Amino acid sequence: MPPILAIANLSKTYASGLSALRAVNLEIAKGEIFALLGPNGAGKSTLINIVCGIVTPSTGTVTVDGHDILNHYRGARKTIGLVPQELTTDAFETVWNTVSFSRGLFGLSKNPAHIERVLRDLSLWEKRDNRLMTLSGGMKRRVLIAKALSHEPRVLFLDEPTAGVDVELRQDMWRMVRRLREQGVTVILTTHYIEEAEEMADRIGVIRKGEIILVEEKAELMRKLGRKQLTIQLNEPISEVPPALGQYGLDLAAGGSELVYTYDTKAERTGITRLLTDLAGAGLTFSDLRTSQSSLEDIFVDLVRERA
Q1: Distances from the Cα of 290 to the Cαs of 102, 222, 229, 279, in angstroms?
Q2: What PROSITE patterns does this protein map onto (predicted)?
Q3: CA–CA distance from 3 to each of 31, 49, 65, 106 (Å)?
Q4: I want to staple 81 with a disulfide (CB 3.0 to 4.6 A). Which of 104, 131, 153, 164 is the partner?
Q5: pLDDT tens-digit map of 130-183
């Protein structure tokens, strides 16, 4: 099955000379949730804005559901829903009229049943007759999502959709995202809440200084780059790691009462058995062992730092 979004050799250099994107190549499958992560200024919003027809690329091609974004702009744009970071709304209009008007902008006939379903899914139905100026920031964010869904797009971009949103609203939004995926909608999101990407995404992409430095299935990324740590709780605290244990790169923690051993999950042997034997040889005894694994946030920070 061809990808619903295909980006090839995409670059963008602004008149100021700023190179925002450099030879980006990316394919996204229909119905997947793809999380694009990167530090501020990495090029996330520029990439989204090009795909959505807001910014013109310098070089390269982008096709959405078979439509070239330059040669078949209307077809491409009709396929896409965009939830921007900025809370740009008509303050004096009602929720219902705002969302209905957005559908009309794409040349679609009225469909009150669809608008009602979207508003109910986003817990906006009771607010349908409220003017936007009376809504909280979180509710305005929901209205932006409703507007993006008004024309039944097949690809939905969520650019920091939960920024400034409380936990309850955030959970509602992610439930909605899951329902959209079940309906075959492709969701591409950027977020500063990396735990959300870890929970929601099928694949992870990392962008830095305008370049895609990694695209990987989430589970495979965690397997390849994840690290595990073994924390050994000692019966008696120590002031330094014995020289005989120097090869393990142990760290002292909890005032000398814990030893932390970091090991590679890809390695055939973890070295734990040998470590525990050598602990006894060094005259150290322990009362407890516990393991932990690095999170997606740990991996992301390491990736960005390595390429700094």
Answers
A1: 53, 19, 8, 16
A2: ABC_TRANSPORTER_1, ABC_TRANSPORTER_2
A3: 10, 19, 8, 23
A4: 153
A5: 999 898 888 888 898 899 999 999 999 998 777 666 677 777 778 888 888 888
Integer-rounded Cα radius of gyration of the chain: 24
Prediction pTM value: 0.73
CB 210 within 8 Å of CB 19: yes
**Average predicted confidence (pLDDT) for the chain:** 85
Give the pair of three-digit tokens for residue 115.
């608008």
Classify residue 244 by its DSSP letter: G
| Closest C-alpha to 85, from 159, 164, 177, 189 | 159
What domains, with CATH codes, occur in the chain? 5-222 (3.40.50.300), 226-306 (3.30.70)
Residues 6 or more apart in contact with residue 301 via CB below 8 angstroms: none
**Left if phi > 0, otherwise alpha if psi is -120 to 50, otherwise beta: which for 180?**
alpha
Per-residue model confidence as pLDDT tens digits over 82-106: 988 776 667 789 999 999 999 988 8
Any idea which residue has 């040998």 for tokens? 274
d(CA 158, CA 188): 6
Name the residue type at position 59: T
**Closest among 162, 154, 201 to 180, alpha carbons compared:** 154
